[in-house]
Amino acid sequence: MPVSRRTFFKNTSLAAASVAFPAVVKSANPNSKLQVVSVGANGMAFSDIKNIGAHAAVKYVGFCDIDSTRFDQVDKAFPGTPHFADFREMYAQLGDKFDAVSVGTPDHMHAKASIDALRLKKHVYCQKPLAHTVWESRQMRLEAEKAGVTTQMGNQIHSAIEYRLGTRLLKEGAIGKIKEVYSWVAVTGNERNKRLEPLPGSAVPKNVNWDLWIGCAPMREYAACYHPFIWRDWQDFGGGAMGDFGCHILDPVFTALDLNAPLTVTARNSGINQHIWPTSEEVEFVFPGNELTADKTLKVTWSDGGLRPDRKLAKMPDNLELPKSGSLFIGETGNMVLGHVAGPRLYPTDKFTTFKYPKEKGLSHWHVWVDACLTNSKTSDGFHYAGPLSEAVQLGNVATRFCPGPIDSRTGDPLEPKILEWDAANLSFKNFPEANKLLTKTYREGWAI
Question: What is the DSSP letter of 80?
Fold first, then answer.
């Protein structure tokens, strides 16, 4: 039976008052299971379900998906687990019968599904990017602090041996203090979808609950270019190339160099409308410097859609090329290239011929979260860290939407970039208040956070 908004929020308030710290209760009994539900049952959601469910202390008690045909994998892996279409009904019906939530929906629903769970004092594992907007990213961090539960963002390479080794080398000063960083991804903002305008609507398949899929976003007619995957290219639902990969590739940059909020952000792009993210873009952040950086500020340049830095900056051998995706750290005594899901390499080669890489081990990102849930402790990738990282990524998308492309479409003349000065404490721009409207979005009635 569908649950009304009034009933759901009444139940949310009651549960928040009565189920304060579920992991404390669980950890009192070492034989108890962490009872988990998943919002999303296929695609990346299933990858998370499978990896979380491989932990001996996990028991699934509910799976939710708006598409009734997408339960086949979870039913095979974890048979007998109840199905739901609406995560709000799942939360309300299961009540105190679940302890934790894994969220693997399209980006525009991350914050709603996660924050509703946090207000019920449930542990949350949420896929990257943490949220769809800067404001949502901030609320995710604040709500997690209030809830006092264990959280983690689903940028799983954070725990992999490649990124752990790379961040360790940087923190230990293998290339000295850092002067500048370049990060890039080969994927384009709309490589999966060449359309610039929404398709005419078509009949909704019987297996899809389109109203629940749209959720927080403005209502539009169903078209096959949104579900189940190409939604990422559309501004109402995803974050383009930066939203897809920013929380992966910028993660070791943030972790190694203890970054938080940028001072300024600006962007150039190949052209953008109000529907689709650009094919390529370059976003320049300036962060406050610290004891790990060479100067008082640090410039971090992001690019995608085939754009990447000049390989000569890395001082690599002539027979090598930069990876298709990754980061280049320019240090005072050398450079590091950290490919996306690849081990770090130090250059120029002749300076590091005798360098011995320390031994490092990779961890299961999902099991780190489960173990922390059972002991009511923090992970290194909890929302206290992932929130600011996600804010920076979404600030890049704000700059892409607000700042001009490289050429004035009317005159053909080059345009001066707009540099947005960020006031993190007040969640606003100092010099372009008109850009503040892009920090959040309008929520459909009944779906506000």
Answer: T
